[in-house]
Amino acid sequence: MSKFLRSLCEVHSPSGEEVNMKHFILNFVNENSAKWKVKPQIFHGEEFQDCIILVFGKPEVAAFAHMDTTGFTVRYQDQLIPIGSPEVKGGETLTGSDELGVIECELVLNDHHQLYYKFGRAIISGTNLVYKSNFIEDPSYYYSPYLDNRVGIYNLLKIAKSLENGALVFSCWEEQGGGSVPFLVRFLYNKYRINKMLISDITWISDGVGFDDGVVISYRDKNIPRKSFVKCITNLAIENEIPYQVEVEAFGSSDAREIQISPYPIDWCFIGTPIENAHSNHEKISKKDLKTMILFYQILMGQL
Predict the structure, then answer these.
(1) According to a count of CB atoms within 10 Å of the terminal CB, is the N or C end of the chain lower?
(2) Helix, strand, or coil here: 112?
């Protein structure tokens, strides 16, 4: 498990530059799908920009995972602009590359909360940088930048092996406010009439959500799913003896926002694993929670 998750965390894929993760996933699918229970139909290309949809059998449920991460874009005079909402303390190591070569530089946070980089040369404007990969594993936890949302991608690629019917969707721009989900939802609804969608992502540790207590079923964040659909999901957790936690928050969002405001009658629910230090260079998740998440998605894709 850890070797593949580590490889996912090492892919440079900030919002707008998801093409690297697209190629990683397509290579993985092409190398492994012949051994899966059902070989999926793969949708990608100009119509889908850098997104991917894998369709298995006769899909009734779709699960979404976003491919992008937070990061930083080089502006001018050593300035950096955040991509999404990275957590910054200053002194972190950033990596990337431009036309002049590979970059490994220091992130500087000044007294006015402005962001800069420190490097031996000027970095070409428009270059995207991310936290340097530093994957650590102990008996109970994984620690790494960008477990958000490599965990969600990992979950979908793990359940692909045994999936008979369903759609797995890899989206773009979630950390920067979205943008790809509307055309993905349109495709899934118009072509397959899929009206049940799950969000495979991480959620934050809080006073009501902790480590090792199971997968998180979100009853609401900034957006509110239909209660009857969420109760159906909760009942499946109870019937299948899946440890779970209920999340109730006033803020935060995900790809679910664009599903909810779409013009299609689609039910959705965010189901994920809790994370500590989200959007920082030292995120942390529980192995136990991740295993529970994968098991529950296998159940949901077959029983919803």
Answers:
(1) N
(2) coil
Assign residue 277 a region (left: φ > 0; alpha: ψ between -120 and 50; beta: otherwise): left
The pair of structure tokens assigned to 9 is 């965390």
> 0.90 exceeded by the pTM?
yes
- Domains in the chain with CATH codes: 2-69+136-303 (3.40.630.10), 71-131 (2.40.30.40)
pLDDT tens digits, 240-267 = 999 999 999 888 889 999 999 999 999 9
- For the stretch 224-239, pLDDT in tens is 999 999 999 999 999 9
pLDDT band at 23 (very low <50, low <70, confident <90, very high): very high
Q: Which residue has the tokens 């989206």?
A: 171
At 184, give phi and psi (nearest 5°). Answer: -70, -45
Is the torsion defined by CA of 143, 86, 28, 164 positive or negative?
Answer: positive
Alpha-carbon distance of 284 to 294, in angstroms, equals 17
Confidence of residue 1 (pLDDT cuts 50, 70, 90): low
| 203 in Cβ contact with 218 (< 8 Å) | yes
Tokens found for residue 200: 């495979």
- Average pLDDT for 277-292: 97
Contacts of 105 (CB under 8 A, 6+ apart): 93, 94, 95, 117, 118, 119, 123, 129
DSSP state of 37: S
Read off the amino acid at residue 161: K
Q: b/e string for 32-65 if b means 16 or more Cβ within 10 A?
A: ebeebebebeebbeeebbbbbbbbbeebbbbbbb
- The model's pLDDT over 37-47, given as tens digits with 9 standing for 90+, comes to 999 999 999 99
- Token pair of 84 as six digits: 């999404």
